[in-house]
Please model this.
Amino acid sequence: MDEKEIINKVRQCVATALGRDEDEVQVDKKLQSDLEAESIDYLDITFQLEKTFGISIDKDELFPQKIFQDEELVKNGVVTEKGLRFLEEKLPFADLSGFRKDPRMTRVPELFTVGLLVNYVKMKLASS
Amino acid sequence: MAFVFIDRILECEAGERIVALKALAFNEEFLRDHFPGMPVLPGAMILEGLVQAARQCLSSRPGGNDRWVLVEVAQMRFNRLVVPGEVVRLEAERDREEGDAVWFRARALVGEENVGRLRFAVRPHAAAGFDEAPARA
Amino acid sequence: MRYVLIDRFLELEGGKRAKAVKCVTRGEGFLGPSDSYPPTLVLESILQIGGTVARIVATPGSRTMLGKVERATFPAFARPGDRIVVDVNVILSRPEGTMFHGVATVDGKTVAEADFMIVFLPMALTPKEGPVAREQRRLLWQSLGIPWDGQ
Model:
């Protein structure tokens, strides 16, 4: 499957899960703030991706709950250097370059874009 | 006991939009089964309230009939449980028509908090009796 | 109005599928205009059956709840005297929840069809099922023909 096909299929999955038109689901869109995804939607997106790409997604692998359990990972609402390395490890498919410039914990949801899902799927398909 | 899932109409623009309330009381019999020890307003009954509100919205049109039945639901999702002691605000707005079916965009809130969102379509019930819902256009 | 909208399970495979019945009768007292049986109650029967299929294989103590109805259609009415037969199948299952497809028929004619998701609520969010509620559930499951192995 080439990149273009993956992107289109991922966009279709998100559109189906969120009940939106595919046009609205562009690669740069943030799931929560742009597409208004709510908790149930993350589960639906996971189902759609599993079904469409035949991959198996472990619990918390794509949308981890409570990422920062350790208090050394976040100080005063800002993700520490240790926290950033932890994020890199937990979300190897995420693009942290923008986040590093302003690593407030409240900005973590902004990492979850349609593009992140595309990277995740590429990673999973490459390793299978 | 009546099968009524709206308590009051707050706003009604005939045929266009309706806002209604459903207050949830501990005494409501269905809560004993849903669930024992944890009373929660069933999502299907939030839907029922919205259908009943839409029925009133459409029947208040001049010459409007009040015999509308639910034929389809799309993307009904819930984010929050509603418990006794809370009042749910049900909002439905006409979205579009498809043949003789009318689609509504709807949501339910408790205060400012979003309880759920959905879209649904209703269709006029054929004349009296137990006629089948007309085949979809 | 009681809210157990299943009368009996005919077939049940936890985590996989089920076939159950719901009779429509004036005796229940919740018919709509012209004695129509509300489609939302047919939907609820489908959802409750799915919930049971999920609950049987869920971690003991977890709560199953409706997460989402992707789509539901109601092509025909059910009416008093009807015996609705509901078939529910698991499409996909995950630790967080399960996707289902359900069809309700009366004499082979479809009265409702739905694609829906049942979610498992984390135990921290909901009150634990106490011994009295558990016993109530045991009695209920026994009446509905659901095998009990102490879950």
